[in-house]
Amino acid sequence: MIRVYNKTSCMVKPADQTWSGKLALSELDQTGVTVHVPTMYFYRQSPEDWFDVLQTLKSSLSSTLVHFYPLAGRLSSVSGGRLELDCNAAGVQFVEAYADKKLTDLDTFLPSPIYHQLTPSIDYVSAPLEEIPLLVLQVTRFVCGGLSLGLSISHVVADGQSALHFVSEWARISRGESLESPPYLDRKVLRAGDPPRANSRLEHTEFDPPPILIDHSENESEHEKETDVTMLNLTATQVEKLRNKANNSWKSEMSHGFTRYEAITAHIWRTACKVRNHKPEQPTALAICIDVRGKMSPPLPRKYFGNAIINVIATGRSGEIVSKPLGYSSSKIRDAIEKVDDEHVNSVIDFLKGQEDLSKFRDLQPSSNDGHFYGNPNLGVISWLTLPLYGADFGWGKEIHMGPGTHDSDGDSLILHGKDGDGSLVVALCLQVRHMEDFQKVFYQDIDIE
Predict the structure, then answer these.
(1) What gap in Å lies between CA 337 and CA 262, rounded to an integer?
(2) How would DSSP label each residue in 382-398?
(3) What's residue 287's pLDDT?
(4) Which of 79, 88, 261, 377 gets the highest tally of CB atoms within 10 A of its CB?
(5) CA neighbours within 13 Å on the CB side: how many for 348?
(6) Do residues 340 and 295 touch, judged by C-beta distance below 8 A?
(7) Cα 141 to Cα 24: distance, rounded to the nearest angstrom
(8) Distance CA 201, CA 221 (A)
(9) How sure is the predictor about 365, in pLDDT bands with cuts at 50, 70 and 90?
């Protein structure tokens, strides 16, 4: 067991004066996941002068916050269950710590309980919302000289694209270089603060509670079951096998073949339905996260900083997902994705603007037993394939591993590139312990079944 000790904490504030005031948040900022999202970076060797490492990280962070000043602010509640961002330069939490083991003692870089010691904890229960930093990070030195950097960024302030933009610029400034791409901070491009327009003409069933297991009246019992995490590696050959399998089994009027995401996500969905042993008539839902930056007309600014993502839902019955070919479930995923255009995004915004209370559409707790739990019989598959995940060099080389932090909700999964850039992909999956062994077995077996 690794022990992390001598934790010390300070607030790092912007190096220069920044704009201050209340910043209106868009509806996409304050719905869905609004807790802090952790990511982990591991580095094999840092410079011998640990004091210099810490000072470089703090000073470069302070300089970077001048440009990304919303991260140094605080949230506050306003009427209608809504949130706003107070750009008050209160700062971000910087924790330094030490581990009594080597990096090699981790055995694996899978998200595990040790990650809770490598990222700062956040008190959502007793701490006032106005006092919770929007960015908390921890730098931990291992006895081998390696280090980990654990960052948790409030999803209210930044989605994955924005968070990684910040990390990239912070690393650049830490190396002594200049800012490359300033963030675009005006959220009015997503009508933040504007009054609602006419009622949406589109239905938005994605905000309805997802299905629960047949013969169950609630999902709390499923939510409480023990989960485990695994990383499933797919070679470039296996990825193409899945795409070909989906395309060859569903030759409908498609303008182009299924993408890697569509085929792999369909494979994950089918495998989960199989190993969860659903009844054939069991309804099941798949949550798909869409980056809308390029879906809007005109497109959002390239470095828009905030949340530019929405969820769409593919639905089916477990029996048909399992019994029909891979192309069938792939087509359901494509149908859900292809409906997202400028009209759809603005319709989502209109729908949310028309709600009396937005709080019911968000999760301010890291784990919740409400009706929007996406575990059995449902799941969510997020693509990190378009995100600039790797290459965060703060001045002592690129990371040896980057990945999600704590990852402990049943049915939660990510697809990301393999680190070698050879076309391989990785599926990071959290599933109930009782299903995990069967899932891994069926996941690989079914790739080769024609």
Answers:
(1) 9
(2) EE-TTS--S---SSS--
(3) 95
(4) 377
(5) 26
(6) yes
(7) 38
(8) 37
(9) very low
Burial of 315 from C-beta contacts in 10 A (0-12 / 13-18 / 19+): middle
The region that residue 167 occupies, defined by phi over 0 for left and psi between -120 and 50 for alpha, beta otherwise, is alpha
Extract the tokens encoding 105: 């003692």
Which residues lie closer than 8 Å to 203 by C-beta, 6 or more apart? none
In whole numbers, what is the pLDDT of the chain averaged over residues?
92
Strands 74-78 and 4-12, by their bridges, are unpaired
What is the rounded CA–CA span in Å between residue 140 and residue 124?
23
Pull the structure tokens for residue 204. 């938005």
| pLDDT for the residue numbered 201 | 65
Token digits of residue 152:
């948790």
CB within 8 A of 51, min separation 6: which ones? none
Over 171-215, what HEC string results? HHHHCCCCCCCCCECCHHHHCCCCCCCCCCCCCCHHHCCCCCCCC
- 3-class secondary structure, 372: coil
Q: Which long-range contacts (CB under 8 A, 24 or more apart) does 222-225 make?
A: 222/373, 222/375, 222/376, 222/410, 222/432, 223/367, 223/369, 223/373, 223/375, 223/410, 225/410, 225/432, 225/433, 225/434
Give the pLDDT score at 116.
87
Alpha carbons within 13 A on the beta-carbon side of 281: 2
Measured between alpha carbons, how far is 253 from 392 in angstroms, rounded to an integer?
Answer: 42
CA distances from 334 to 204, 266, 384, 413 (A): 17, 10, 17, 18
d(CA 443, CA 232): 9
Task: Give the residue numbers annotated as catalytic, written as ranges.
Answer: 155, 393
- Angle, to 10 degrees, between the axis of helix 50-67 and the axis of helix 160-174? 130
Q: How far apart are CA 244 and CA 405, in angstroms?
A: 32
Strands (E), 54-210: 74-78, 82-87, 92-99, 135-141, 147-154
Q: Distance from first CA to last CA of the chain, Å, rounded?
A: 44
Instruction: Give the mean pLDDT of 46-73.
Output: 94
User: Which amino acid would we find at residue 402?
Assistant: M
160-176 pLDDT, tens digit each = 999 999 999 999 999 99
Beta carbons within 10 angstroms of residue 46's beta carbon: 20
pLDDT band of 200, cuts 50, 70, 90: low
Torsion of CA 379, 335, 383, 413, to 10 degrees: 10
Largest CA-CA distance found in the chain, in angstroms, rounded = 62
Residue in 32, 79, 81, 308 with CA at minimum distance from that of residue 189? 308
